[in-house]
Amino acid sequence: MSEPILETRGLDKNFGALNVARNINFALAPGARHAIIGPNGAGKTTLINLLTGVLHPTAGSVHLAGNDVTTMTEHQRVKHGIARTFQINTLFMGLSVIENLYLAISERMGVATSILRPAGSNPEVMAEATRILGVVKLEDDALTEIHELPYGRQRLVEIAIALALDPKVLLLDEPAAGVPSAESHIILDAVDGLPKDIAVLIIEHDMDVVFRFAERITVLVRGAILAEGNPDDIAADKEVQAVYLGTSSHV
Ligand SMILES: Nc1ncnc2c1ncn2[C@@H]1O[C@H](COP(=O)(O)OP(=O)(O)OP(=O)(O)O)[C@@H](O)[C@H]1O
Ligand SMILES: [Mg+2]
C-alpha cells in the first residue's frame, strides 16, 4: 500500500474501566473506499471521534498526511485535510443550501463575510459552492432553506459542507441513518459519486451498501480490530461470520 493518508498507531481509549479502543493500528490509503463495520457499541463512532480530535486517546497516536495530529484540536485537523459528517444535523436551518455552503467555503478560504456583503458576492466562493452542489446533485435545491428540505436532502447538504472543507479524507458516520428508505438512494448515489482523490471512510450497518461501496473493510468488535481485508476475505472470514455477518446474505 502507498503511504497512508490517515493512520493510527497503538490507539487506546478508556472511559473509566471501559476500553472502547484497544491497540488500534489502522491505515487509510489515499483515495481509498474503506468501510468500518461492527456491532452496536463496538467503538466505531468513538474511533471516528479519535481520528477527528473530538476525543483524545489514552495512548497511541494519529497521523494525517504525514503529520502527527494526536494533540491537535478538531479545527486544526480540518486544516490538515480531514472532514466528517455527524450522525446528527449541524446545519443553519433558516438559511438556504447555497448560503450554508457559501459560509463554509468562506470560512475555509479565509474570506470575510458580513451582513453588509450578502452571500454570493464573492465569485470565487460562489463558483466553488456551485461546483460542490453539482458533486452531490443538489443544484435544484440551491435556494431552498434547509428546514424546507426532506431529511435525506438535509443529510446531502451535510456531505456538501464536509466537501466544502476541501478534505483529503472524508469520514461518513452512517450517512443514511434516519433517512426513509425511499430517499436513501440519493445519499448512496452521492457517496458513490464522491471525487476519487478523496479517501472515504464510511461506517454503515447496511451490508448491501458496504459490500457494494468498499474496496477494503475493517471489522471492529469490542473496541479492537477483529479482521481487515477486501470484501471477499471479510465475507469468507469464519470469525467475522460468527460475530457479525451470521445473518447476512453475503456469506
Ligand atoms: N463519552 C462516553 N463516555 C462513556 N462511554 C462512552 C462514551 N461514548 C461512547 N461510550 C461507550 O463506548 C462504547 C462504544 O460506543 P460507540 O458509540 O463508539 O459505538 P458504535 O460502534 O458507534 O455503535 P453504533 O453502531 O450503535 O453507532 C459504547 O459502549 C458506548 O456506550
Ligand atoms: Mg456509532
What does this structure look like?
It is a single chain. With 251 residues, the chain is of the alpha/beta class. The chain has a single domain, classed as Rossmann fold. Helices cover 35% and strands 24% of the residues. The protein has nine helices and ten strands. The strands form two sheets. The protein has a six-stranded mixed beta sheet, sandwiched between helices. A four-stranded antiparallel beta sheet has the order 2-1-4-5, covered by helices on one side. A hairpin with a 2-residue loop joins strand 9 and strand 10. Helix 3 packs across helix 4 and helix 4 packs across helix 5. The two termini are 27 Å apart. Adenosine-5'-triphosphate (ATP) binds next to strand 2 and helix 1.
Keywords:
251 residues; alpha/beta; Rossmann fold; six-stranded mixed sheet; four-stranded antiparallel sheet; 35% helix; globular; binds adenosine-5'-triphosphate; binds magnesium ion
Enumerate the strands of the largest sheet in spatial order, edge to edge or round the barrel.
6-7-8-3-9-10
Helical content (DSSP H or I, runs of 4+):
25-40%
Strand content: 15-25%
Number of strands: 10
Largest pleated sheet: 6 strands, mixed
User: Class, according to the CATH hierarchy?
Assistant: Alpha Beta
Structural class: alpha/beta
Q: What is the CATH homologous superfamily assignment?
A: P-loop containing nucleotide triphosphate hydrolases
SSE pattern, N- to C-terminal: EEEHEEHEHHHEHEHEEHH
Total helical elements: 9
Enumerate the spans where pLDDT stays under 50 for 5 or more consecutive residues: none
How does the overall form come out from the CA principal axes? globular
Present as ligands are: adenosine-5'-triphosphate, magnesium ion
- Named at the architecture level, the CATH assignment is 3-Layer(aba) Sandwich
Average pLDDT reading: 91
Oligomer: single chain
Radius of gyration (Å): 19 Å
Distance between the termini: 27 Å
Number of domains: 1
